[in-house]
Specification:
Layout (H helix, E strand, L loop, with lengths): L4 H28 L7 H10 L37 H14 L1
Length: 101
């Protein structure tokens, strides 16, 4: 098949636009984290937080980027104010009592 020269120019423009969009978002992410250098982590976080870029990068594996920060809701148990009361003192008191005997 014949590829027209105009299609190559159009493809170059689309790639340039996508690159500028990703780099702008990654630069904002790096600036928010008080960094001057854009790292793969910033690119991944920028892509994951953008609704339009996320489907494009759904099958992409970025080495060195880590995982998206967050805690799953099923791991967040219900706590009242007495849940953690005395845990630190309880462990210390048992070891001190055993040491005195």
């Amino acid at each position: 098949k014949f590829i027209r020269p105009a299609s190559v120019v159009y493809l170059g423009a689309v790639i340039e636009y996508l690159l500028a969009e990703v780099l702008e978002l990654a630069g904002n992410c790096a600036r928010d984290n008080k960094r001057k250098i854009i790292k793969p982590r910033h690119i991944m976080m920028a892509v994951e937080m953008d609704d339009e870029l996320k489907p494009l990068f759904s099958d992409v594996i970025m080495p060195g980027s880590g995982v998206v920060p967050g805690v799953h809701t099923c791991l967040m148990g219900k706590r009242d104010q007495d849940t953690f009361r005395g845990w630190a003192r309880q462990g210390l008191s048992k070891t001190q009592v055993g040491a005195k005997e």
